[in-house]
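Q: Joint fold for the lines below.
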Amino acid sequence: MMIPDIANPFFPGVVRGAEDVAFANGYRLVLCNSDNDHAKEVLYLNALRTYLPAGLIMIPSSFDDLSAHTQSYRSAGSAVVCIDRVPRNWEGSSVIVDNVDGVYRATSYLIGLGHRHLAAITGPLHLTSAQDRLKGFKLALRHGGLKTTGNYMQQTTFDTAGGYAKTKEILHLLPRPTAIMACNDMIAFGALLAIREENLRCPEDISLIGFDGLDLTEITTPKLSSVYQSTYEIGATAVQLAIDGALDRNCQPRQVVLKTVLKIRESVAPPRAEHVARTSRKRTR
Ligand code: RIB
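A: Joint structure:
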């Protein structure tokens, strides 16, 4: 199994589900961490192939030559399942969540609270998961009659440092956004740090929603609202698809799309009245 960032608690959650199903079915799971480094990923793929694994579960760091590498596994009889971020032209089995719908519902919730100046921070836009989360944000703004303004939508690395840096920038936009959609929880944790450093309060000054629903969202201050995706179910489903493919080479590939759950906690609130008054005055001039 290949994961891109073992320091992001999301991925060990996926591995937990994968390893449980593999072990229960008599398989042993070998885990590789690519560190989002494509060269390291290729090194691992070339080494793992020599073990002739029953299956390969891929969370790719990039889509460069992914099909070529995975084709060599299929030719050797291994079942290949791509999860979490999947190339648009992928024809094999896959497991993702409905990223567009998840961010669409979270952003619509913020608009329903009265937010009119929203920002989004997503991950690297070469990844389909990051693209689809931003797509959900834009769709919600459009359906809410709001403009999508370029610098209120930022991309960065799916980690705390990236979230911190981009939030620092966003907080100096005028008008300052009253809500941020962080497209994973690690970005949201960085945003919380930046908000605090700017002597602002969440949610009083800035509402914040993350994506993943990590356990850590229950212990942050404030507790983070987040779009929950079941890491265990993603991993368990992926391994089951691989086992099905390993046992029956004529088994048809399946593309599984799991739903997310919007978990509202303490990090969201309606925008402050004076902020709404100030920005509507600007609009009427
Ligand atoms: O790769 C980083 C992110 O993508 C994770 O936090 C999770 O959201 C996954 O879908």
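Q: Anything notable?
A: The chain has nine helices and twelve strands. Residues 8, 10, 84, 123, 129, 158, 184, 186, 211-212 surround alpha-D-ribofuranose (CB under 6 Å).
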